[in-house]
């Protein structure tokens, strides 16, 4: 592998099989380069994304998908992954539950609400999707180590996927990360580096290491175009689970913003390929106020996302300089949605509300999403009558500290019936 910015054609890259993916194209100037370990445009330094030539469509494609494996690889025809991917060691995430949230809907005065519950993935967050695709592409591109800078969940997913694949992992996390995320990553046995810095510092460091280590795939840096495609499957699954149609409104948490942008891309591909009828939908983004550069830009009506220094309990969303921020603004404005932000107190209320009404215990990112849904309703930005899907992207067991001071036993008693009755628990 040569430098990221000078894609010299090599035997390795000219023969890559990444299924329907045919090239990388620049999201700014549209220029194309061959598939390879590149992420920045040689012409304008803009970010690259995967370009496809889909050969199947409509009813035939739908039948093929429906007959596919009960995991992310049922979407292989629409992803940058080699043929035969389903039989290659990987963590095989996806096909998580779409839960009809009638109790929460009633409480919020909504008509139809669903929770796409991605805490059901192998390492309990949506990051398993992006890592599964990144691992598949990284292998095909000849990388031998799987690495990442992470706000926590990505570290879990990379360490687990590398373990399953039998390759080395190297993950960099902020030293002040939740203990649960550090321990659950360390359990998989890869190299785990706690860095005294915030995510944006670590991301910069990862870029520097990637430039030195030719055979390390930093999933969200040098193979980012492939990685990001994994999030399309959240959109694909929601559409199939609704009976091959799109919802009218979606609420999605934002860190780098890639997930939100790719769920929209997934919806567009389903329309283009004739898998769902074309219908209008609004995309809403959710941030914690302590790290809300995209919400700030949305409300100011500008295209410029100004970096911030994060300060929020929603650590999985604490990216102060979000790579996809401008594209989030494009998607939310184009569809008639919005980007809103909520305080840490509202995040905690959001976690408790979802747990109490639907029996789903979300991490802080899910709390951000539920609280943002509530705020969008209260401010009249989101229509309570329109069918809505919110995305719970991670598991509350990984962020217990966030709620440890607000939940606990109802009572503590001696082991006697008298004590139970005295405590007024019957
Ligand atoms: C990383 C993460 C997100 C946001 O992902 P982006 O694609 O970077 O916007 C949302 N929720 C959880 C739980 C995450 O770990
Ligand atoms: Zn370009």
Keywords for this structure?
426 residues, alpha/beta, Rossmann fold, 3 domains, 6-stranded mixed sheet, 4-stranded parallel sheet, 13 strands, disordered N terminus, binds pyridoxal-5'-phosphate, binds zinc ion
3D structure, described in words:
This is Threonine synthase. Residues 93-394 form the Tryptophan synthase beta chain-like PALP domain. Its cofactor is pyridoxal 5'-phosphate. The modification N6-(pyridoxal phosphate)lysine is found at residue 127. The chain has helices at 11-14, 58-66, 102-108, 127-140, 153-165, 179-186, 199-212, 224-229, 232-241, 258-272, 293-300, 325-335, 344-358, 364-378, 417-422; strands at residues 21-26, 32-33, 48-52, 97-100, 113-117, 145-149, 168-174, 191-195, 216-218, 249-253, 282-288, 339-342, 388-392. With 426 residues, it is of the alpha/beta class. It has a six-stranded mixed beta sheet, sandwiched between helices. It has a four-stranded parallel beta sheet with strand order 8-7-6-9. The longest helix has 15 residues, at 258-272. The radius of gyration is 21 Å and the shape is globular. The protein starts with 10 loop residues before the first helix and ends with a helix. Zinc ion (ZN) binds next to loops.
Write the layout of secondary structure elements.
Elements: H1 11-14, E1 21-26, E2 32-33, E3 48-52, H2 58-66, E4 97-100, H3 102-108, E5 113-117, H4 127-140, E6 145-149, H5 153-165, E7 168-174, H6 179-186, E8 191-195, H7 199-212, E9 216-218, H8 224-229, H9 232-241, E10 249-253, H10 258-272, E11 282-288, H11 293-300, H12 325-335, E12 339-342, H13 344-358, H14 364-378, E13 388-392, H15 417-422
Helix pairs in contact: 3-13, 4-5, 5-6, 9-10, 10-12, 11-12, 13-14
Bound molecules: pyridoxal-5'-phosphate and zinc ion.
